[in-house]
Structure prediction request, 189 residues.
Amino acid sequence: MPTTIPSDATPVPVNDLPPHTRVITTHTDTGKSVFDETLPREVPVQVLDPRASAALTYVAAIPAALAGDNADLRAYTSLLHDPPGLTIPNAAVLRAYDMGPGVASPLHRTTSIDFLVVLYGEMELTLDSGEIRHVKAGEVVIQRGTMHSWKNVSEGWARMLAVTIPVNELVVGGESKKEDLGGIEGFKE
Prediction:
């Protein structure tokens, strides 16, 4: 992930945020609700850069089918070995992002509606219009296919959790738009 780094080139502090974890539920053959132990609780992390990482927490087809055969778990597990793009056609993606202090993503656009929550730290959200909003821990952003970038303006690491839902078509100013990752590495286009 090409990122901008603080101009003083200070060393990157160790990411001291808690590990990414998830709890998955399922049913027994008799219909009893239980916790699924197929996958470890800790989510694997994809290092994009020494200052940024992503954790593909879960992916589910839209509409989801829970037919009792764990097909959704198998499909998700295969994506852990071959990480997808930021969006996946016909699937909702749950992903967490960690960014070191002062790190900024390039301007980028996904063909999706994204629901993001800042969990730790404070992020600066910049749109291609030049408008800027500061988003603090606990605040939510609804990203609707806009060109945007993120910057961690905290003294320590920041974490965001995002649910990305693909759109059938993204039309801006009468023109159909495609995904533009702006040079972010580590994700398929």
Remarks:
- Residues 71-81 form the longest helix (11 residues).
